[in-house]
Amino acid sequence: MRTGFTLYALVALLYLVSCCEKDTHYSKDDKCCKKCGPGKRMLVDDNCEDPRCQDCQDGEYQSGYTSETRCERQPSCDPNLHFLPQNEPSKTRLSRCQCEPGYYCTQDDDCDTCTKHTVCKPGQRVVKKGSPVSDTACEACEHGTFSTNDSSDICRKWSECKSGYVQNTPGSSTSDQICGEYTVKNLPKKTIEVLTHGENEDVERAYRPVIQQPQEDIDHSVPVSPTLSNLTDNGNYVAQEDGKLTITPTTESNSFS
């Protein structure tokens, strides 16, 4: 008789438990009791069918139905650790911390640390911009392109030297090439050898600096020494008055004592 009653009690208990909705109810003292809804906690469980519930406080949350008397705490997002402050965090779900601009969370599931985004240096470009959950990706500029600023979105092409101009300074990944006017001085020596058909004398002449010889200053106030060209047949000087083109011979006078 006792064995039959025990079996009946077990069957009744299993039936009672199976009748309770696990998400919204719980079993207590052979009864199916109600839980408090999301965003609330249970004050006391003195009334199984109609429990007294209370809203979670600020900074707390409860994501589902519960019979617990305490709510879960929201994470503390400290601005001193580069977290954004939480404005009115939810009471029905977990409000994860977010990093301020320029930083990203190192873990996808739980943001507990903020790390500064990588800065792409000159000579690089940004391939993928950083986000609150990922770092910035950088790439070196290809040959023939350059960037001069941090975190440049693109690498610019080197300037092309127009007709009549040649390269003075070669470009690099961080600077543009500089062009100058076409002159023999800035031509490579190999180019001049081609233009002069390899003549060494012409090549050396092209690179030889032009030296201008100074002209001697002639002082016209100094008398001209007598030469055969300015003497007469008798040995007299040929004198010319200023402003006249006619040359008049002068005769020396002999004095006798």
TrEMBL record:
<dbReference type="Pfam" id="PF00020">
    <property type="entry name" value="TNFR_c6"/>
</dbReference>
<keyword id="KW-0732">Signal</keyword>
<dbReference type="GO" id="GO:0035631">
    <property type="term" value="C:CD40 receptor complex"/>
</dbReference>
<protein>
    <submittedName>
        <fullName>Tumor necrosis factor receptor superfamily member 5-like</fullName>
    </submittedName>
</protein>
<feature type="disulfide bond">
    <location>
        <begin position="120"/>
        <end position="138"/>
    </location>
</feature>
<dbReference type="GO" id="GO:0002768">
    <property type="term" value="P:immune response-regulating cell surface receptor signaling pathway"/>
</dbReference>
<dbReference type="InterPro" id="IPR001368">
    <property type="entry name" value="TNFR/NGFR_Cys_rich_reg"/>
</dbReference>
<feature type="signal peptide">
    <location>
        <begin position="1"/>
        <end position="19"/>
    </location>
</feature>
<feature type="disulfide bond">
    <location>
        <begin position="99"/>
        <end position="114"/>
    </location>
</feature>
<feature type="domain" description="TNFR-Cys">
    <location>
        <begin position="98"/>
        <end position="138"/>
    </location>
</feature>
<dbReference type="GO" id="GO:0009897">
    <property type="term" value="C:external side of plasma membrane"/>
</dbReference>
<feature type="repeat" description="TNFR-Cys">
    <location>
        <begin position="98"/>
        <end position="138"/>
    </location>
</feature>
<dbReference type="InterPro" id="IPR052135">
    <property type="entry name" value="TNFRSF5"/>
</dbReference>
<keyword id="KW-1015">Disulfide bond</keyword>
